[in-house]
Design brief:
This protein is of the alpha+beta class. 22% of the residues lie in helices and 22% in strands. Helix 5 crosses helix 11.
Length: 625
């Protein structure tokens, strides 16, 4: 689940998980003394606007929307030349939506790749005089409504105003408010200018890059019953090359941005408490009403909403399964391995009481309206770049409950070639050094962590492919210099997909997974068929190469591990609080060992030698020797 350019990704750094349950709206401002609504005055209904008056700052509704193309759904939109008018009804104001932004087109360098998630924001439309403001809601603090503490929170923490739209018109008959979204869509809302500044500082480059409005344009908008989808093409102007080798003209950096504005579930999912013994990403909030509790913080695991069709059955089909689409960008020959990697998680969900919880569909070839960026679809996609070999598994979460609403897995196309040893066999030393420094810079990121790279499994797994290639050549399976056979690449790809899909199910890394496997059982295919070569595919697992070639077992896990099955039970089993605590108490079982990034020297403070990346078995020293 690498994050080359994850801006406010679902997958959050520990302790700063991207989400909360609810945010108390600020109290209404007091009316001036002597005005309607003030103390002692008679409250009066707000008068409807009189559009016949000459001092009204907006034009009549028919004039603004004349000859516009009308789209209806969650909102009504009017497309007219370069204007993208959105009609806001009373129920749209001061109501929270989720705004998700992705790169629909990248530049294929520095991690600026098409499909990368940029931001996930809780937003709200708010009327302020003759303008409509778009608030980015502060989702980290809360208090029980209608209490003194709620008032304290309301005046202590505010919301950011991302944009102010002049009112274009107000419909006399319904009081709908019309605003033009285009100035927000065709802007640097995604804050790529800051990322370019970061690259310039990190690599000590000369020059700058800034958003160029004149060379940017709106492309498309679609409206559905629960979401709005928009796509724009942006240009950033640069006076220097900035080290990017992929640009047709270094002065003009082209990017595509896709916006998804989502309606949050009308009935929030029942949240599930997080437990430090089980590795889930969390939605966290600070609830100031808990002033007598041990801590203000409330933490819930990120998970999909799975409900049994038959609640009385031990194992039941879900009401709504988790569906992944295989995008049209995946090469046909690799799709079976990707499909197998996704569906392997059903082994874990069956132990949690769900049959066919995860399903896979092919993206429709003939449907021109289907798009991988559409927030209604969770996908696995291929992406192309100059030389990076990462994979990512971001997801978007309802901050009120931790419910995962959408997820995407992206795999770099160059990973296949890199795994076979081709990249490092033929790339020059200058390029190798450059990539090392790029990786290090992205790991350190900027102060607020927006560019933090959270997972390097794919790129390092590709390096280990060289070991498999050498082993196969030494064993006579392939001739020296020949590539790794597709079967071995496919096994590695399946494990990589299992790892990234695990992230989209809510699971964090588990770098203690290999410690559950006895050294003597690593080459036992009957054992690894059910246990895997590691207790968790959320570990960074190297290929299980046997020194004694006659005892070679599986190179990679063919199924999810024992820890993974237990973790899925904690997140998804239909149990009450007592049942949940009973599952968590199984953490001491040897098959359930867990330790994540901060325990594995992520910041240089790891102390437990069993929590290590790319080691093997419960005796890692013997394995290393």
């Amino acid at each position: 689940m690498t994050r080359p350019l994850r801006l406010l990704s679902v997958v959050a750094v520990v302790g700063t998980a991207a989400c909360t349950i609810r945010v108390i709206q600020p109290p209404a401002q007091a009316a001036p003394s002597g005005s309607p609504g003030a103390a002692g005055a008679v409250a009066q209904a707000a008068p409807k606007p009189d559009t016949t008056k000459k001092d009204i700052p907006w034009k009549p509704w028919p004039e603004v929307t004349k000859d516009a193309r009308t789209l209806t759904g969650l909102f009504t939109a009017y497309l007219k030349r370069e204007n993208v008018y959105l009609a806001l009804k009373a129920e749209h104001f001061d109501r929270d939506f989720l705004l998700v932004t992705q790169l629909s087109q990248g530049v294929g360098d520095y991690g600026i790749d098409g499909g990368s998630s940029m931001r996930t924001d809780l937003v709200r439309f708010h009327r302020a005089g003759d303008k409509v403001q778009l608030w980015i809601v502060n989702p980290y603090v809360t208090a029980t409504p209608n209490t003194p503490m709620a008032r304290t929170v309301a005046y202590s923490f505010g919301h950011s105003v991302a944009h102010a739209f002049p009112i274009a018109s107000i419909r006399d008959t319904t009081n709908e408010v019309l605003i033009d979204l285009a100035p927000l869509l065709v802007s640097d809302f995604v804050d790529m200018g800051s990322f370019f500044d970061f690259l310039i500082r990190a690599f000590r480059l000369q020059g700058s890059a800034s958003f160029d409005r004149e060379r940017s344009s709106f492309e498309a908008l679609r409206v559905f019953p629960t979401n709005l989808e928009a796509r724009v093409r942006l240009t950033y102007r640069s006076g220097r090359r900035l080290g990017m080798q992929t640009l047709a003209d270094y002065r003009f950096i082209p990017l595509g941005v896709h916006y998804s504005l989502l309606e949050l579930p009308a009935t929030p999912m029942r949240p599930r408490p997080a437990d430090d013994r089980v590795g889930y990403f969390v939605a966290a909030r600070k609830d100031y009403s808990r002033d007598t509790a041990q801590t203000f913080f409330v933490r819930h695991v990120n998970r999909w909403r799975l409900e049994k069709q038959d609640p009385a059955a031990a194992v039941s089909e879900p009401v709504k399964p988790i569906v992944f689409y295989l995008d049209r960008t995946i090469p046909v020959e690799w799709r079976p391995y990707v499909r197998d990697g996704i569906l392997e998680w059903n082994q874990a969900f069956e132990e949690a009481g769900f049959k066919n919880a995860v399903q896979v569909l092919e993206a429709p070839e003939a449907d021109s309206t289907w798009a991988a960026e559409d927030a209604r679809y969770s996908t696995v996609r291929w992406m192309a770049n100059m030389s990076s070999t990462y994979a990512i598994g971001p997801s978007d979460v309802d901050p009120r409950t931790g419910e995962i609403l959408n997820a995407d897995v992206l795999v770099a196309a160059s990973w296949i070639q890199a795994y076979q040893g081709e990249y490092r066999a033929y790339a020059g030393p200058n390029e190798l050094i450059r990539r090392v420094f790029l990786e290090d810079s992205l790991l350190r990121a900027d102060p607020d962590g927006r560019f933090l790279r959270l997972c390097g499994y794919a790129s390092q797994l590709a390096q280990h492919g060289t070991l498999v290639r050498a082993t196969l050549a030494a064993s006579g399976v392939i001739a020296p210099g020949q590539p790794v056979p597709r079967e071995y690449v496919g096994q590695a790809l399946k494990e990589l997909v299992m790892h990234e899909v695990g992230h989209t199910l809510g699971l964090r890394h588990n770098f203690r997974g290999t410690a559950t496997i006895p050294a003597a059982r690593l080459s036992d295919r009957s054992f690894t068929a059910t246990h895997g070569t590691s207790g968790s595919v959320m570990d960074y697992n190297p290929p299980a190469v046997a020194l004694d070639r006659s005892k070679q077992g599986e190179y990679y896990s063919r199924t999810v591990g024992t820890y993974d099955r237990w973790a899925i039970r904690y997140g998804y089993a239909a149990v009450d609080d007592a049942g949940l605590r009973a599952i968590a108490r199984q953490a001491a079982h040897p098959d359930h060992l867990y330790g994540s990034d901060e325990d594995a020297s992520f910041a240089g403070f790891g102390l437990d030698p069993t929590i290590t990346r790319f080691d093997q078995t419960a005796d890692p020293l013997a394995w290393a020797r």
